[in-house]
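Quick one, T. Sequence first:
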Amino acid sequence: FTDVNEKIVARIGADGDDEADVARHYMEDVIAAMSELNLRRADVYPRVSEHIDDIVAMVETLVESGYAYESNGSVYFDVTAFEEYGKLSNQRLEDLEAQGDPDYAGEKRNPADFALWKAGGVSPEAVAEERKEGAAPPEEAARGAQTWDSPWGEGRPGWHIECSAMSTTHLGESFDIHVAGADLVFPHNENEIAQSEAATGEEFSRYWLHTGMVRVATARAAIDEYGPDVLRTFFLSTVYSADPTFSEATIAEARDRWETVERGYERAVQAADSVDAYAKVEDADLRAAVETAREEFTTAMNDDFNTREAMAALLGLASAANAHVDSRDRYDFTGLGRAIDAFEELGGDVFGFSFGAPAGGAGDGAGIAADLVELVLDVREGEREAGNYDRADALRDRLRELGVGIQDSDDGPTYRFE
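Structure tokens:
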């Protein structure tokens, strides 16, 4: 979480009392939305504000090794000192334009140099450019920005160095995969590579996956209106690097695909439940379809994570399950079991679909209650990670009053209805 940012400061007064409060507001929203989308929790949620010492140490390393220089209390990365600058975005140094605030161009040796450490706080002018309606006046909001001491004076970290310091702290000097939006290839990812590899001497990331952009009003509105499985189907039905068109028509197509897969799974489960496990019935077509679906799914995912073709494999599996149930009076228990396993392993474990979860309506109270408890626990974890232990304890105590027992462990909280 990059919780130190001019855009956050520009929302002071509208979404929180100071920069840290605004950041906490959005982090809680993100964690809650991730839970509702059935995304696995990360092992750690690092924040810039908790890694200032790591950031300063990396900047010091770059200065000492000649890759960066101090100027008027700020520190800039010298792009001419890193010979491979531009290798990710395929740009030549001589073709690059200025980076950063033009008001500080006079402090830099080269217009393309970028800030690692910025002297002072956030200017009212920078806040005004990003100010959200209803936020505090720029002068007032700027006073709510955080600053830290450093060898170069009081200031704030640059945007790019934040990510390098956090990732190398938690993942090591070199890691396998870096994911980012396609809009971040340059300058952000390019600068991450330059400063990280200059500081460590190691390849920063072995593979880069850049995703396309999906433009919706808000993630919250999309989750509330369409549900997590329909949204997942929408995302998975296109190549990750493309910019999918979000519209009523494409969402309707995604809903149809999800309902087809879900219906195939549910009918397979219902049919298997009605069959004697020792029944001597075999459907060679169903069993072959299961193996084909597994092979096609794996081949697609091995092809640069081609989720569109992998989704087609699941649809083929659903078609085979439906055909089996529709065409027979007696069912292949073994074949259905293999189909169910494939649905749950490929669609559930890999794609994160919520097979078997309540769809809503009468009789689904227990499932909804469980979802609500999971949501509260995610918010509570966010409070604990932010150091708001009193608020976290209050949520735990309230759950207990409602009959939900909470047990904390190193692997995270668990609960049970008492």
